[in-house]
């Protein structure tokens, strides 16, 4: 399978704990995006990378959230001191940097903060 | 303030008939639009896109229509099949700023009844 993969698929944690999610994009894609989706809503943009550079961050991304893409391949999204409001599906997408790009999504990581 | 709106949370259609899903946007800078389909426990899957230089794009059973003056687009599925039952998201971006985030609507749940 050469699509976007995300691990873990599910994560249950207690409030105040730190969690880290991983995304492996399609291998030739140089852009990588993180989105968050809550029930009844569409995906909301969090941040994106072009190669290893983080080019944009949403105001939704509080200072408890940090994302990295150290070698321009896989990416990690860490949430520190989790809160119940962080419970959501975290989606990763990748694309090629062409003008009319199509973003291809992974299956997501569902986070539940108790 | 939602920049991309899908005012019908759900739609039911008989198998073989036409499904029409609607999307409205408010930001006149948007010039590239996409439809994604999402099954439970999976990430969104790209269906079809259209740029603002066109008013129609067709791919098999799927056709997207764009009315720029009304800031409205629609997805037509003909004929509808039970496997089309999913949540459909409309997304928009500004090509001049390509590489930045897509803005998604809240989705419409389509049920195709056999």
How would the blueprint of this fold be written?
The complex is a heterodimer of chains A (114) and B (114).
Chain A: E1 5-7, E2 10-13, E3 19-24, E4 31-37, E5 44-50, E6 53-57, E7 65-68, E8 75-79, E9 88-95, E10 104-105, E11 109-113
Parallel strand pairs in A: 2-11
Antiparallel strand pairs in A: 1-3, 3-8, 4-5, 4-9, 5-6, 7-8, 9-10, 9-11
Chain B: E1 4-5, E2 10-14, E3 19-25, E4 32-38, E5 45-51, E6 56-59, E7 62-67, E8 72-77, E9 86-93, E10 103-104, E11 108-113
Parallel strand pairs in B: 2-11
Antiparallel strand pairs in B: 1-3, 3-8, 4-5, 4-9, 6-7, 7-8, 9-10, 9-11
Please supply descriptive tags for the structure shown above.
heterodimer; A: mainly beta; B: 114 residues; mainly beta; six-stranded mixed beta sheet; five-stranded antiparallel beta sheet; 53% strand
Structural commentary:
The complex is a heterodimer of chains A (114) and B (114). By secondary structure, chain A is mainly β. Helices cover 0% and strands 49% of the residues of chain A. Chain A is globular and about 40 Å long. Chain B has 114 residues and is mostly beta strands. In chain B, the strands form 2 sheets. In chain B, strands 2, 4, 5, 9, 10 and 11 form a 6-stranded mixed β-sheet that branches. Chain B is globular, with a radius of gyration of 14 Å. The A-B interface holds A 4, 6, 31, 33, 35, 40-45, 48, 50, 55-56, 58, 91, 93, 97, 99-108 and B 4, 9, 32, 34, 36, 41-46, 49, 51, 89, 91, 95, 98-107.
Question: TL;DR?
Answer:
Chain A has 114 residues and is an all-beta fold.
